[in-house]
Amino acid sequence: MTDIAAPAVMPSRPAWQIKVPYALLSLLMLLLIWQFGTMIFKTPPYLLPSPVDIGFKIVKDWKLLLLHSGVTTFEIVTGFIISVLIGLPLAILVTYSPMFDKAIYPLIVGSQTIPKVALAPLMLAWLGFGYAPKILITALVAFFPIVINSVVGLRSAPPQMLHLARSMGASSWQIFFRFRLPQALPNIFAGMKLAVVLAVIGAIVAEFVGADAGLGYVIITAGSSFDIPRQFAAIVVLSVIGMAFFWLASWIERISLPWHVSIRQTHH
Amino acid sequence: MSSLRITEDAAPSQSTLRGWFKRSSNPACGAVLNRAGAVSQSDYVSIHKDYISIRGTSKSFVGRNAVVHALSEVDLDIADGEFVSVIGPSGCGKSTLLMLLAGLEPASSGTMRVGNKNVDGPTPDLGIVFQQDVLLEWRTALQNVLLQAEIRGQDKTAATARAKELLAMVGLQNFLDAYPYELSGGMRQRVSICRALLHAPPLLLMDEPFGALDALTRDQLQIDLLRLWSKQKMTVMFITHSISEAVFLSDRIVVMSSRPGRIEEIIKIDLPRPRRLSMRETPEFLAYMQKVTAVFKTLGVLRDEEGDDE
Ligand SMILES: Nc1ncnc2c1ncn2[C@@H]1O[C@H](COP(=O)(O)OP(=O)(O)OP(=O)(O)O)[C@@H](O)[C@H]1O
Ligand SMILES: [Mg+2]
Q: Which residues have C-beta atoms less than 6 Å from ligand 1?
């Protein structure tokens, strides 16, 4: 029987080694089309700058962009951390307490339909123009995917797994940390990846509504002075920040869940 | 099919296993040690007639609009070291009986005793295997087996040695560090059996453990299980839908009927041990199968021409 043989070593490259070059190639293609399009149709740079124009603008404005990126990044990170610190314990409460599940969870799920960014002006009115309203909006936006995915994950342990745990004499703590939590991690990470992307949107929208710093502020002020290249420069930097956070979350996921379907690759 | 039956020298000797029992501080393992010692299994069975005693046990579930009587007045004694199969139509309460005995569900009435302890909470020192292997996907085969020792707070070094021994006995010595997704269904179920046996439990409960496997793997696992059982001398309650599987493995077969679930008949299987796959063609074996089939026919569970497995 083949059972007895050692596992065959399959020389296969991890997914990212294949994916990244192709994605980069298509991005390069798009940028080339854009570049040649603006050259052929001679679009004025104050309406649609070419990628090269934007590149120059980023280099020229780097000090300003760096300063305001710092502000926005701080809002994103703080908002995200707060949403995790509140969202995860709340998800645990919902899974463990039937009272919470019946009384609170439907409200959380239902309030998902409220467009949180529409609350930004209200937050501003209540909390002033500092960091507080931006962080609050960011946290609010990031909070929902974390709670909902974590609840789904924490509930995903099959009943027989919990029976098994109890038959081994596992304490509630052991059941949580050795069975439920690891079982929930793929969902929790999925929620966090979603949350990190939403956090970027939350921070920017909050800055749009009223701010004196941050990339959202840069975009708004550049817009009102028709500095389209600077707007593009800020958007590019913002996209890079968003991608960096998403990539960071995916990377942490990959090293902590090597066993999961979405990540597994042939090793040995 | 050269490895259909793993040779004795591939498996660790009985003395090393007994050595592990001696090291174990687990009081329940004392009985195992005694049994593995001088007293032969058949003698022991006659001395301790009722290792497990189930008396007038009933269980009803209150559903949304009806009460389901899953088990009604079940009486059953199981001797120490006995291999008992439970067979019956779907929904007759086999799994419920197992859950009650494991102390994972409270009975509605009646008493149950395992060893000298009444069941009133999770029964300590037993092993459970379900139809789904419920391996933890984030742990390797070895780590999955060791989970049992970790939760029970047992010595890591001794447990690791024993886990490796058990995995080798079911032919998985080269897969200690494989993750569950790298294993076939049969291999996964073998890991879950090793996990159930790591702490040398005096009682092993199995709920259709081979139900999801193909026929060939199933045959192999039956052989593996009997070998583990003869080495460890534990008591086994084995739930199955397969008549031939029940006859092949068991000392006794408990035939149940449904609505409400109760014991219809207990059939003693007097086939010699060790059992061999070739025995399944003998007239004695077929006679036992017909006997079980006949019970199902009188119950109306089986109608003509359906008298095979499942
Ligand atoms: N938790 C539960 N709540 C309500 N009813 C239940 C519950 N568990 C089992 N039952 C009912 O009890 C009866 C017996 O169920 P059980 O799972 O013990 O049957 P079974 O013999 O194991 O069936 P199968 O061979 O299909 O596994 C069924 O009618 C089932 O619907
Ligand atoms: Mg069942």
A: B 61, 63, 68, 70, 88, 90-96
